[in-house]
Amino acid sequence: WVPIKPKTDAAFLFAMIHVMLHEIDRSRLDIPFLRDRTSSPYLIAPNGFYLRDRKSKKPLVWDLNSGKAVPYDRKNIEPALEGEFTVSGVEVGADDEKWSHKDIICQTAFTHLIDHVDGFTPEWAEKICDIENGIIRDIANQFVDHAHVGETIDIEGMTLPYRPVAISLGKTVNNGWGGYECCWGRTMATCLVGALEVPGGTLGTTVRLNRPADNRWSSVKPGPDGFMDYPMNPTSKEDWVSKSPSRHAHQTLVPLAANSPWSQALGPTHLAWMMQQKGFENLPEPTQPDVWFVYRTNPAISFWDTKAIADVMSNFPFTVCFAYTHDETNHMADILLPECTDLEGLQLIRIGGSKYIEQFWDHQGFALRDPAVKSRGESKDFTWISTELALRTGLLEKYNAAINKGAAGVRLYGENYDFSLSGDEPHEVEEIWDAVCKAASAEVTDGKESQGLEYYREHGHRVKKFSRQRWYLYPAMVENKLRFELPYQERMFRIGKELGARLHEHGITWWDRQLKEYEAMPNWHDLPGQWEDALSKVYKINIDDFPFWLLTARSMQYSWGGNAGLQMIHEVAANIVGHGGIIMNPKAAEKLRVKDGDVVEVSSAIGKTRGAVVLRNGIRPDCLLMLGQFDHWATPYAKDLHIASMNELTPMILELTDATGSGADLVKVSLKKMGNLS
Fold first, then answer.
1. Which of 195, 202, 419, 484 is deepest in the core (most CB within 10 A)?
2. Is the residue at 224 inside a domain?
3. pLDDT tens, residue by residue, 137-186
4. Residue 18 φ then ψ, to 5°
């Protein structure tokens, strides 16, 4: 365990990259991978954009065979990885601004990378991370040693690079400010040894935004400049969305959020809550929802600044909650509706394939969740509920069309099959899922078979072979002649410039700090200082009065927290050290005369919570840890556990919102000993 200071992970990663580029022999890196699978050979023009061919506008590389600059995708070339060269071409900037260059000196992106990390020495990082420079060097060298650069492995008859090293980023590390720097640093270090999307190396996660989402290979489509396509929200003058239809303005503010059904969940969701309190200048005036539906969620507990969230939702004109038990959100509902539990409802679910990094399967297909017991009382299957809502609100035709297009998880038509529902009439629950099952069978069998619901009820599931070659994006990247967009992300630099121009044209300047994050290669910023300055400025506090960094971690037992009211889950979680308490370093506790089991009050600038101390050495003296999302006051059983939660202490403020609209579960707090939990 390396006890790194919160929000300094990027400095550690930058120092690792420095060691790999400035202290380790270049021959130990994966030179072919860098040359052929990344943007490393691309030539960078004076204004920070790629130098391009005048005719095709493709990025130029220096070809060692011909001794001249040529488009990156010309056949039979050997691009120079390092160096500077006298070249001519055109540079295309934001909003299609062009500069013509003749006989200028340009460096490769890889040379820019080497210069970029020159000052990020382990000695520099030691002062920031509070980790000895020797440890940073040792980890960097171990990383390269264990990468097995040059080795290969056979995957079902295909020879692939074998790189058994990976860097996994945990909660808070890749959220909020510093998340971009960490993700870039993690992925760049991986690229240096060719360990990205290959056996043993770092693999990406499930596909949410870059559709289709059936498996990760489906998202590998050629895009501009030899990179994968990505559905950025537009930033051009003609296409930028100045009035986003979503409440958190993700299409206006966050190009990376894209505009898929998942975008509203992965965009700057807390901005929607903030706007309910006070709108942002020159954005459309925020409105309350006429009717707010709440389904299997409890934002009054699971969001930051829970008091502010509760205040906002308590003023909504009409709230409908689907509820099993009383909880903190449905406490404010106008109507409570019963819905079938998972043991009572019907659904066909995708299984297998490469959906998650921890779930790579040898098969893919579908499994049926069939009612195990009859529904109780007036509870209804959610398919019935959604159909009735569509019928009664005049949306039935669009609703059925959405199901036909795949809203239930499977598109109902394909190249040689069509089980589409008629659009002008409501359909029964089993009729809908029978059509879905038929389409699923056709998908699994390439249209040869089309058994429906009864088949799945008899067999439970249906799958087909999923090649392990498809676990990794590398073969698809090679097949499509694509490169990973590292180290130099010109596209990020470009859209940042364009987004800034659009916002300023509309008088929006309050997003300027976020615009600074659009760098082709990230620089180090004093992230801990940024947190402390933001809290001091917004809440007029003396930050020295809040000496601890408060963190959280996801509880495997409680998952997302929806089962917090189950006694059995609490009994299981009680076997895990730290559950139900506030984890604290013994030396820090000794200074405050706090003992194991003592009840303490933890305070931030916006709130307080109480809990019992759990002393452990595996935490920094300047940190506290609260597991999960608790502080329940209405949910049966959970409300009587008196478990502390940081959500009541964590603010929602623009100053701690990064360019993607993300924040982090991190706040400065104080701690004092109390008498009891009452």
1. 195
2. yes
3. 999 999 999 999 999 999 999 999 999 999 999 888 988 999 999 999 99
4. -60, -45
